[in-house]
Amino acid sequence: MKVAFLIHSLEASSSRYRVVQYVPFFKEQGLEVSIHFYKRGWRDKFEFYRTLDRYDILYILRKLFLPPEFWYIRKRARRIVYDFDDAVMYRSSGSKSPYSFSRRLRFAYMIKRVDDVIAGNEFLKSEALRYNDRVTVVPTSVDLSGYPVKGDGGSGGSITIGWLGSGSTLKYLKPLVPALEKIYRRYPNVQLKIVCDQFLDGLNLPVIKKQWSSEEEVSDLMSFDIGVMPLLDDLWSRGKCGLKILQYYGVGVPVICTPVGVNREIVKDGISGFWAEDEDQWEEKLLTLIREEGLRREMGLRGRLIVKEGYSLEANAPRLLTVIKEVVEKG
Fold this sequence. Notes:
Number of helices: 14
CATH superfamily of the largest domain: Glycogen Phosphorylase B
Shape: elongated
CATH topology of the largest domain: Rossmann fold
Largest sheet: 6 strands, parallel
Structural class: alpha/beta
Strand content: 15-25%
Strand order of the largest sheet: 2-1-3-4-5-6
Distance between the termini: 13 Å
CATH class of the largest domain: Alpha Beta
Number of domains: 2
CATH architecture of the largest domain: 3-Layer(aba) Sandwich
Order of helices and strands: EHHEHEHEHEHEEHEEHEHHEHEHHH
């Protein structure tokens, strides 16, 4: 069975966690796998499209093509699987309106014409079901073999509240700043660590600004004592798949999050972490974990178990393989 994966880049988090990390497993199971990148020039595009009939499946990640281009892709490809882990049919948080006619048109046109859809969560599945009844949820997953568990922290040292993400999501962290500054005035050993390619300035508390790199990502995660994932409650955020949380939990770090979308499913409030919806709740929950080192350890380990059982490579690679095989077998 030959599968061609079409992705943005090897560095993009969606590509790494929804395609690239599965490739060794697929090869072990006998699949012939090749990875291809979206082309910009029409000549390069059509040179690739003319080869699509060589593959049993074209596996498209996230990209929304214009209808004429996808019409040609559909004509050339034997079977197509579409995978998405964001609310690509809406505009991102902060837009004047979440609704986009062009995005919805491209999404509907493609979903109606693919052989199977893989959605990152139930909200995304509900969007795809409007146009295609062949939709499977496979959550974003992490390979726990690459995530050592954080050791016990020493008492009396600094407490690091950590956030890791892309520059486009840094806007979600800004509303958390007032609560963090208030906490710092009471607990001068608290510091914020931002792992990103952009940073927040002018904060009235110590901030460690760390440039993200794939080589140091896990060690940065292990430097956190508490991981945070604030969000807005909007259509775009409901499509998110909780990767930050999975990474925090992967190394045994407890999480405080906004209970939006899949966050509500991954973080068990009061068990593996806390939910927080406003400044007062963020301050309260952060203070609880700052004060209780044992609770941080306990919640972090519970979170890692949640990942192992439902959001790990080990749990979901066989599920993804089953979908791929069924698409070919059903024809």
